[in-house]
Amino acid sequence: MAIKQLTVFVENRQGALVEITDLFAAHHVDMRALSIADTQDFGILRVIVNQTEEALQILRESGHLVQATEVVAVKIGDAPGKLSQALHALNEAGVNVEYLYAFLARTERHAYVVLRVADNEKASAVLEAAGFHMVSEADIQKL
């Protein structure tokens, strides 16, 4: 089960990120998870939002270079070792994790993690078989 992630190239200058968050705020797009990495000249913002298609459109219309990518998101117990258990399950099944980051969540019992892997269906099946709950687009709407 895959969900959509937006990847936005952001100029590495003061105010560039706030322009994007202002766009989201003005269009009532709620960020559920995000990660940003930077280089000398630009940053890469990865974000999960509650209104993917609308966010994609407003970012493109405002001149941002953006693409949608399918990733998987998994709900894990918020306790020491739970993330390691999920990663072990993927590793043992031969699934390489390219990167991961956590959700902004409103719960004390669970953590939500976004994973970029080559095979979303296999990763989802492996994690579900290992007892983990996969996060759907509908779940994101409820967070």
Verbal overview:
This protein has helices spanning 16-26, 52-61, 82-92, 120-129, 137-142; strands at residues 3-11, 31-38, 42-49, 65-77, 97-102, 110-117, 133-134. The protein is an alpha+beta fold and 143 residues long. The chain has two domains: 3-69, VC0802-like (2-Layer Sandwich); 71-142, VC0802-like (2-Layer Sandwich). Strands 1, 2, 3, 4, 5, 6 and 7 form a seven-stranded antiparallel beta sheet that branches. A hairpin with a 7-residue loop joins strand 5 and strand 6 (110-117). The longest helix has 11 residues, at 16-26. The protein is globular, with a radius of gyration of 16 Å. The mean pLDDT is 90.
Brief sketch in words of this structure:
The protein has 143 residues and is an alpha+beta fold. Helix content is 34%, strand content 38%.
Overall number of domains: 2
Q: Biggest β-sheet, characterized?
A: 7 strands, antiparallel
Q: Characterize the quaternary organization of these chains.
A: single chain
Helix content: 25-40%
- CATH homologous superfamily label of the largest domain: VC0802-like
